[in-house]
Specification:
The protein is α/β, with parallel strands linked by helices and about 240 residues long. About 45% of the residues lie in helices and about 20% in strands. It has two domains: about 160 residues, Transcription elongation factor, GreA/GreB, N-terminal domain (Helix Hairpins, Orthogonal Bundle), CATH 1.10.287; about 70 residues, Roll (Chitinase A, domain 3), CATH 3.10.50.
């Protein structure tokens, strides 16, 4: 499956790959190399818990970040096609590859340990610890499959610093024509959506995201929601 990327972003990935290969080589030779700045970039849910496991090391994070740039170089396409890919920032792509590596090399191995320990408790048919560990195994493998799909089939976009229209990276203010209530959000790719962030990060594939994409401040759009249609005016794009 391809990764779509611009020529500029591909060159950036090449430069970063060279940089990470050099840093990784130094870190493998000297375990006192400070990797904290690379670890600080990782923020996926559950990361702090994974750091407590014996299989975890900061080197796994650094290797995952290197792998992300390597994946891009090996699997990217720069020729535009009519195919639609989920959009994602380069920063988020790198974090997803790190998460995938840690789920395979840390989370999965912890689960194997948990299953082995639970087996030692006896009768599996009445072994709650064993059942919980097996259920967790299914969740882990499902998440790994989802991550593999996301990092293998996407379009890496470079957020703009200014926005004439609503697109990835833009902060947008819309006003409901009926209630006059305002909503402020950042338009992001589907894998970066987060309704709990401030401002909310809303996917470009969501009903609101699809409605506003490509429109300018002052435009009126129709958002199709499960409860019906709502009309919004785009008050501001920045």
């Amino acid at each position: 499956m391809p990764i779509r990327i611009s020529d500029d972003q591909k060159q950036l990935a090449k430069d970063n790959l060279d940089k990470y290969n050099a840093i990784l080589s130094d870190a493998q030779k000297d375990d006192k190399v400070d990797l904290s700045q690379y670890v600080a970039r990782v923020k996926f849910d559950g990361f702090e818990e994974l750091k407590k496991e014996p299989e975890y090391s900061d080197l796994e994070v650094l290797t995952g970040e290197r792998d992300a740039y390597q994946n891009i170089i090996l699997n990217c396409e720069t020729t535009k096609t009519d195919a639609e890919y989920p959009k994602i920032s380069l920063e988020k792509y790198v974090e997803l590859v790190v998460e995938l590596r840690l789920y395979k090399n840390v989370k999965r191995r912890k689960n194997v340990r948990d299953i082995k320990t639970a087996r030692e408790f006896g009768d599996l048919s009445e072994n709650a610890e064993y059942q919980i560990a097996r259920e967790q195994q299914g969740i882990i493998e499902s998440h790994i499959a989802d991550l593999e799909k996301m990092v293998g089939n996407c379009e890496i976009v470079q957020p703009k610093t200014t926005h004439d229209v609503a697109d990835i990276g833009a902060k947008i203010v819309i006003e409901n024509a009926r209630t006059k209530a305002q909503v402020v959000f950042e338009l992001v790719g589907s894998s970066e959506a987060d309704i709990n962030s401030v401002p909310q990060k809303i996917s470009n594939a969501s009903p609101i995201g699809r409605a506003v994409s490509g429109h300018k401040a002052g435009d009126t759009v129709v958002v199709v929601l499960p409860r019906g249609k709502e009309i919004y005016k785009i008050s501001e794009i920045k």
